[in-house]
Amino acid sequence: MKPRIPVAFWVLVFLGMGVVQGCSGESDSKLQEIVSDDASDTSEIQDIVGPEIASEVIPDSAEELEELVPEVVEPGCLTPVPTRIVDNNPDETFDLGPYLMVPTPTSIVIKWRTLEEEEGAVLFGKEGTDEFEVLEGKASLIHAVLLEGLEPDTRYIYQVRSGERTSLEHHFYTAPKPGGSFQFAAWGDNQGGTPFFDVVDAVTADNPHVIIGLGDHVPNGQVVEHWKDHWFGPARALFHEVPLFAAIGNHAYNGPTWYDLMEYQKLSVNPNEETVYSWTYGNAFFLVVDTNGLFFDVGNMETDWSKWIKKELESPEAKAATWRIAYAHEPGADEESWAEECGGVLNTGIRVWLLPLLEEHDFHLYMAGHVHLYERTMVGNILHVIGGGGGGGLEECETPSPVSTLFVRHFFLRGLVGCDSLRLEAVGLDGEVFDWVELGAGEPGNIIDQGPGPNP
Ligand SMILES: [Fe+2]
Questions:
Q1: How far is the CA of 337 from the centre of ligand 1 (A)?
Q2: Distance 254 CA to ligand 1 centre (A)
Q3: Are residues 429 and 344 in the same domain?
Q4: Most buried among 27, 218, 237, 447, by the most CB within 10 A?
């Protein structure tokens, strides 16, 4: 990396950042004004497109000038999904990580674990520019450094440092502005299976913006080292570069390591809880539920979680999003599903309490794991997908599903969350898309395209 400029302690504010030429409606209308007045007035044109572009060509017409200016993105217009570059550069400098958590348009948290208590620091900057340094300010084993004042939808280069060691160079992207489209990868139930290595390779090559974990990522979450051996270790390179939003599964056994390693406490009902939370990314609102606990009303009594979930479903973020998506470890489809006939078990709280509530609040998609197969079905207007093919031993089904689209294989889900549609693809380890479904924006339950498999 280039010589660094130590700037801040804890919190860093970039002055003068955040201005993206040609990307605001204001610039666009100013541009039209200038073009109408006199297209050859280069000084004003320079103010908008910058001196480099303006000096290359002096445009003769509005059309020609428009070609020089980056496409104007209207608020709420989300396509196309911006391309990401995910480097496959596994780094064993530290026991765990570095890995990325809770990206927003202007901030991100970088975490890593050391074997001894040491102070940490993060060095970062946009590629080809000066580098900044944020100090952690205390010695610890689990390091979490918040970077703030960043530009939206932007690639940064970073390294972390503890004691005498400095990591290799990795990258992160900030989240897009509200309304931005994006791509996610989701899977559950790798839980120690060796096909997980192939899942990780396939996902890394797919360059997703975020990872959605559908639970059961370790065989036994009480065993601290399982989180390294079966999750953060095999997916080391991927997590250096792509943020993770995981749901807790039954195999986590509510072990304390989950709470040490995740970073969802500010998204949750209180700082001690990190298993039921919500997050917003670009054009989508996500609700994440813990199917191990009492997230639903019991009798006529509300639980802390059920109260909080109801409030979140009414939040401005949920209402403003183009897409409303929920996920948890356990599925909730019953007669619409064949998963139970393949050895799976549904969660009654999801079935009886959450799915009707989600439908009431115009949710488009519910994703789960737990059953080690792929299944796509509809529960009312909600697309219900099981993505439990992350690497654990597969289920066995005696007969093909007469009620859903079901495949028993290892795979991951690719979500293309766009402006007019949300396309969910099931991707095999050979890269083949073996099933897909595309929802139209607006009213939930509008399937505009789907795979040719049995789709009752
Ligand atoms: Fe499970």
A1: 17
A2: 13
A3: yes
A4: 218
N-terminal to C-terminal alpha carbon distance within the chain? 55
Helix axes 25-37, 42-49, angle to 10 degrees: 160
Question: Which domain does 116 fall in, by range?
Answer: 4-17+81-173
- The Å distance, Cα 5 to ligand 1 centre, comes to 47
Q: Any idea how long the chain is?
A: 456
Residue 22 located in a structural domain = no
23-29: Cβ within 8 A, 24+ apart: 23/70, 23/72, 23/73, 24/72, 25/72, 25/74, 25/75, 27/69, 27/72, 28/69, 28/72
Instruction: Confirm whether pTM is higher than 0.90.
Output: no
* Alpha carbons 134 and 7: distance in angstroms, whole number: 7
Last residue of a domain, one of 173, 190, 220: 173
Residue 255 pLDDT exceeds 70 = yes
CA of 66 to the centre of ligand 1 (A): 53
pLDDT digits (tens, 9 = 90+) for 31-61: 233 223 333 343 443 443 333 333 333 334 4
Half-sphere exposure of 23 (CA within 13 A, CB side): 10
Asked if residue 275 is part of any domain, the answer here is yes
The reported pLDDT for the residue numbered 79 is 64
Would strands 284-288 and 277-281 be described as parallel, antiparallel, or unpaired? antiparallel
Q: How far is the CA of 369 from the centre of ligand 1 (A)?
A: 7
Instruction: Using the mean position of ligand 1's atoms as its centre, give its distance from the Cα of residue 368 in Å.
Output: 10
Residues with CB under 5 A from ligand 1 (ion): 216, 249-250, 370
CB 104 within 8 A of CB 175: yes
d(CA 401, CA 407): 9
Yes or no: say if 209 and 177 are a contact pair by the CB < 8 Å rule.
no
CATH number, domain of 440, equals: 3.60.21.10
> Domain check: are 141 and 247 in the same one?
no
In contact, 286 and 280? CB cutoff 8 Å: yes
Q: What are phi and psi of 252, to 5 degrees?
A: -70, -20
CA of 370 to the centre of ligand 1 (A): 4
Cβ neighbours of residue 199 closer than 8 Å, sequence gap 6 or more: 187, 190, 389, 390, 391, 410, 411, 412, 429
Residue 292 resides in a domain:
yes
